[in-house]
Design a protein that fits this description.
Layout (H helix, E strand, L loop, with lengths): L14 H4 L15 E2 L11 H9 L13 H11 L6 E4 L2 H12 L5 E6 L4 H9 L2 E6 L8 H6 L5 E7 L11 H10 L5 E5 L24 E6 L12 E4 L2 H9 L8 H10 L2 H28 L10 E4 L5 H10 L2 E2 L1 E3 L3 E5 L3 H12 L12
Parallel strand pairs: 1-10, 3-4, 3-5, 5-6, 6-7
Antiparallel strand pairs: 2-8, 7-8, 9-12, 11-12
Helix pairs in contact: 2-9, 4-5, 4-8, 10-12
This protein binds pyridoxal-5'-phosphate (PLP).
């Protein structure tokens, strides 16, 4: 089916924008099924958090404090910085766009590992800059040496995603520090830690421990995944004031809502956060069970430190995704590389193991792994 708008005569759009695929959301699950395609938190909102959001309804005729000062102050306390060193965005994906726009334009390069977060290429194209994608290592982690080698005098932003979406592998603290030692001090590095709360590995990088150490580093986090607020669009950046000021300047004004800020603040209340982090433990336990189960079946599953597991299905990607869909499980397929399966409801784990038991790569032909 052709989209009549894309064929409208006489409208001169930027050709690189007209050619962009629109952002694809995970497909909805069948009524009795499981939506494991968007790395969402499967738990219902916490009562205290939902009530804090509801309380903001009486003020929806007013513009919000879109700087979200109260939330910034809370986060600043945790990171040991001032509230000006924290920037709230309507999702950390909005912040990614703001930082890229602040640093890169036509003729510039934005460097990142690939495959990684599917929003990166589009955000770079919108800025007018060019993506430089460095293939993941065979273990599906970032090849930071190759990334450092690829820096040129046109590079304006480097994005490091840890744990990497969709492969689940983290960058270690040692790897990250060695990388930063090779990056020029005037080149902006964005450390995207959307899944940091799910990491159970002491060697992995943790942006919080790096704050204040590098004048060119910004750490990005979100309330969408572990904190279960994907629908309210709240993310944050921590970094040097001058870089954050530039990103404030490229924001579409007033994007952060009062409901989003209230939800963020309520989520950081000790009782709410304890419960949220206990739920993260449950998801980590399910992730471990799924990954261990798949490895026992013969699946070559990489390290999985987010709330998802990567299946390197290669040429079989579409076929495996369809088999799972027929069983009521919606996953995110990236043909011809693999499938990202989010960790969701308890009952979905058994179903996944049952279906994937019959689809172990190479087993149909009797090939060794
Ligand atoms: C989900 C995700 C984000 C941001 O999500 P928001 O809902 O916009 O905060 C950022 N980076 C990565 C790698 C993600 O997977």
């Amino acid at each position: 089916m052709t989209n009549p708008e894309s064929t409208a005569p006489g409208i001169r759009l930027r050709p690189e924008i007209a050619a962009l695929p629109p952002y694809r959301q995970g497909r909805p699950a069948p009524a009795e099924g499981y939506k494991l395609s968007s790395n969402e938190n499967p738990f219902d909102p916490l009562p205290g958090v939902a009530e804090a959001v509801a309380a903001t309804a009486a003020q929806i005729n007013r513009y919000p404090d879109a700087t979200a000062l109260a939330l910034r102050e809370k986060l600043a306390g945790r990171f040991g910085v001032t509230s000006d060193e924290v920037l709230i965005g309507d999702g950390s994906v909005a912040l990614l766009a703001q930082f890229i726009l602040a640093a890169a334009a036509a003729g510039d390069e934005v460097l990142y590992s690939w495959r990684s977060f599917e929003a990166y290429p589009g955000l770079v194209t919108v800025s007018g800059a060019t993506s430089v994608q460095i293939p993941n290592r065979p273990d599906h982690g970032h090849d930071l040496d190759a990334m450092a080698d690829a820096i040129t005098d046109r590079t304006r932003v480097v994005i490091v995603c840890s744990p990497n979406n969709p492969t689940g592998v983290t960058v270690t603290a040692a790897e990250f520090e060695a990388f930063m030692a090779r990056v020029p001090g005037d080149l902006l590095v964005l450390l995207d830690e959307a899944y940091i709360e799910f990491v159970r590995d002491a060697a992995s990088v943790d942006g919080r421990t790096l704050i204040g150490r590098y004048p060119n580093l910004v750490v990005l986090r979100t309330f969408s995944k572990a904190y279960g607020l994907a629908g309210l669009r709240v993310g944050y950046a921590v970094g040097p004031v001058a870089i954050l000021d530039a990103a404030r300047a490229t924001a579409i004004p007033l994007g952060v809502t009062a409901g989003g800020s209230a939800a963020g603040i309520a989520s950081l209340e000790p009782a709410a956060e304890r419960e949220l982090l206990a739920r993260v433990d449950v998801i980590v336990e399910r992730r471990t069970r799924l990954r261990d189960g798949l490895i026992a079946l013969g699946w070559p599953i990489p390290e999985a430190l987010g709330n998802f597991v990567w299946l390197p299905t290669g040429a079989e990607t579409v076929a495996v995704a369809e088999r799972l869909f027929d069983a009521g499980v919606v996953v995110r397929a990236f043909p011809p590389e693999g499938i990202r399966v989010s960790i969701g409801e308890e009952a979905s784990i058994e179903i996944l193991l049952e279906i994937l038991r019959e689809l172990v790569p190479g087993s149909q032909e009797g090939h060794p792994k």
